[in-house]
Design a protein that fits this description.
12 strands, single chain, 6-stranded parallel beta sheet, alpha/beta
């Protein structure tokens, strides 16, 4: 069987497609699987297994080669995880006998819907993102889905992470603080970040490490946080590529972050984490199967119940005390497990 997978969204979406890819491989071990991803996800690809070929969608003239590569193949099946105009065009070019998508495409665009011939009765808004991706495999008769997130981190990424730790004199155990996001509405207040980092550093056995992207927006936010620290933290922001960051997270005792790609990297490496949610709903994006405490709104206690319908809440409602309590809880749980 020749299978085409279309996932043209962001890094987090691609990571949450891994269980569907693994399930396909388990059910069709001899299939030839081609995965198309957006160029922004290219850095993650060395850690993605269970595919035979990856093609990049770049949104420029280079996509002509992509179009030709897809049109030349004789695909048996195309699964569109993305559901937009670009993915519909690629599904059309595939000429696959089965072209699978959520039924929601018919509500969005009747013209686009004509591309497909298998409509799965699921909506992303009703499900965790992993479950949504797995549900789209239904027309292939797949049973026994794998829900585990797993990244095959290359040795070079682990070597780079170890070199950064040596050069920056980061001793174990260490806590990573990843405050940044591409969306400013996900930013938590700098003083509160500084207070949480200072609390971690008050334990002489814990090192605090700052990570983040190199964009002007993130660097300005990180700069405000660093200016408020009583004691400087190790700053690796802008110094790591995606997989080196994943390797650093894999070795960390704890990750403290907002809802971002870093949460999915931690879930894939089984690293405990404290996650601050505001405008996005943790029902759809929360880690499952890895230790995580999720904070949203004014409650000091982590969330234990999740709903598909939840209001967008401002990040400022999350208190410093709630974050510190969650950090201490996960660090104490690890210490207790080591002691036993």
């Amino acid at each position: 069987m020749n299978i085409l997978l279309l996932q043209l969204k962001r890094i987090g979406d691609l990571i949450l497609t891994i269980p569907a890819i693994a399930t396909l491989r388990e059910n069709f071990p001899d299939a030839r699987v081609t995965l198309v991803v957006s160029n922004e996800c290219a850095a993650l690809l060395p850690a993605i297994s269970n595919v035979d070929r990856v093609l990049l969608a770049r949104r420029n003239l280079h996509d002509l080669a992509l179009f030709l590569a897809i049109a030349r193949e004789k695909f048996d099946c195309c699964i569109d995880f993305t559901r937009n105009d670009r993915s519909a065009f690629l599904a059309f070019l595939s000429g696959a006998r089965k072209r699978i998508v959520s039924y929601r495409v018919r509500d969005q665009s009747k013209r686009r819907a004509h591309v497909y011939n298998n409509f799965v009765a699921v909506r992303m808004r009703d499900m965790h993102t992993v479950e949504y991706h797995l549900a789209l495999l239904g027309p292939l008769g797949i049973r026994g889905a794998s829900r585990a997130l797993h990244l095959e981190l290359p040795r070079t990424a682990c070597e780079k992470a170890n070199a950064l730790r040596r050069d920056s004199k980061i001793n174990e155990p260490y806590v990573i603080f990843h405050p940044g996001s591409a969306r400013v509405e996900k930013f938590w207040e700098p003083q509160r970040w500084a207070d949480a980092i200072d609390h971690a550093q008050s334990n002489s056995r814990i090192s605090a490490v700052l990570t983040g992207g190199g964009s002007k927006l993130e660097q300005e936010h990180l700069g405000e946080i660093k200016n408020r620290l009583r004691q400087p933290a190790v700053d690796l922001s802008g110094k790591t590529d995606l997989l080196t960051l994943a390797a650093l997270i894999a070795q960390a005792r704890l990750l403290v972050t907002v809802d971002s790609a870093s949460t999915h990297l931690a879930a894939a490496t089984q690293t405990p984490q404290v996650i601050l949610f505001g405008p996005t709903n943790p029902f759809h994006w929360r880690p499952r199967g890895s230790p995580a405490l999720i904070l949203q709104g004014e409650s000091r206690a982590p969330l234990t119940e999740f709903s598909a319908v939840r209001p967008r809440l401002p990040m400022r409602q999350i208190s410093t005390e709630a974050v510190i309590d969650a950090m201490d809880s996960l660090l104490s749980a690890h210490a207790a497990a080591q002691g036993s």
